[in-house]
Specification:
Elements (H helix, E strand, L loop, with lengths): L16 H10 L5 E5 L2 H8 L21 E2 L7 H11 L4 E4 L3 E6 L2 H23 L8 H11 L10
Parallel strand pairs: 2-3
Antiparallel strand pairs: 1-4, 3-4
């Protein structure tokens, strides 16, 4: 049996390059973008739901909730613009009928935020199954966001 040729075709950029580029070119604080279709975040995105302030760890998104960007076809300039607008300086958002995206200062931080977005989406999904969450108030989330300015390991760029 012959082995397949070791020659590989050059890889093409992802169809989502506009979305990644849109974030990176407009955010001086962002050096990494993580985009995925994690199960619970995608489930909520397909249901047209944000992740509200049900747990203080929602604040890893940089906001009191994890917002939802409106639907546009994947790879489109419209989706790229909608994601940049929805992030509004935050670190994460869901994309309607699509998945989640995270922007951060490092790949390590972006991956950690993406994992936490999925965890918070799973917790929210679970609370919806038993009658819905008891949300933290705006003043409570304001305090959390203030505390998150110094949250985490020293020297880790957000």
């Amino acid at each position: 049996m012959r082995r397949a040729s070791a020659r590989r075709e050059p890889l093409r950029p992802s169809s989502e390059w506009r979305m990644h580029w849109g974030i990176l070119s407009r955010r001086a604080d962002v050096y990494a973008v993580v985009h995925c279709h994690s199960r619970h975040a995608t489930t909520l995105a397909c249901a047209g739901k944000t992740v509200p302030s049900l747990h203080y760890m929602v604040a890893v998104s940089g906001r009191a909730e994890i917002p939802l960007a409106p639907y546009h076809p994947f790879g489109s300039e419209e989706l790229a613009a909608a994601v940049v607008d929805t992030l509004q300086g935050g670190y994460a958002c869901l994309m309607a009928n699509h998945g989640q995206i995270v922007a951060a200062a490092s790949l390590t931080r972006a991956l950690a935020i993406a994992e936490e977005v999925e965890e918070q989406a799973a917790v929210y999904w679970g609370t919806l199954a038993i009658g819905g969450p008891r949300l933290l108030s705006s003043p409570q989330m304001d305090e959390v966001l203030q505390r998150f300015r110094d949250y985490g390991q020293e020297g880790v760029k957000r």
